């Protein structure tokens, strides 16, 4: 799978296919600290960010999105579906980041509502997994707050871009859990 044409919109957020043309605006929202715990190094220039997006667009099983304000079109961050395996009824959501001004508000729950709705309602999948570096307590709390169930810790599972080796925390949402998770997200976004 290469570049996709999937656009998702709701709750004031629009997810558009990530494109290297987004790089200058998106990269300006990033910094090395936002990237802490990711397995890929922080793209230290707009060109490096554009190169990263180009690589995501060519990765099989990945749908990379630019997260935008639905009204203004302004960029808030990025997220992806990856390891999309329709024959097994599963996908992962991750490589997500938001500019600091958009952390802790409506952006993440709205984005996840759109992604989870696509996964369960449109694609009919059985499972959506999410994971994060165990050292990233903020991400772990955000994933649990979505309503995802903690599944466990994979020890020494990831090498961060700084070369440090860390554990990965895994979470999931199953199809039968989606109605309750959806209701919780609706309440947060209401």
UniProtKB/TrEMBL annotation:
PANTHER family in the cross-refs: BLL6696 PROTEIN (PTHR43610), N-ACETYLTRANSFERASE DOMAIN-CONTAINING PROTEIN (PTHR43610:SF1)
Residue ranges annotated for the N-acetyltransferase domain, each copy included: 14-149
Keywords from the named record: Transferase
Domain of life: Bacteria
Lineage: Bacteria, Bacillati, Actinomycetota, Actinomycetes, Micrococcales
SUPFAM superfamilies associated with the record: Acyl-CoA N-acyltransferases (Nat)
One matching Pfam family: Acetyltransf_3
Protein name according to UniProt: RimJ/RimL family protein N-acetyltransferase
GO function term, MF aspect, one: acyltransferase activity, transferring groups other than amino-acyl groups
Source organism: Microbacterium proteolyticum
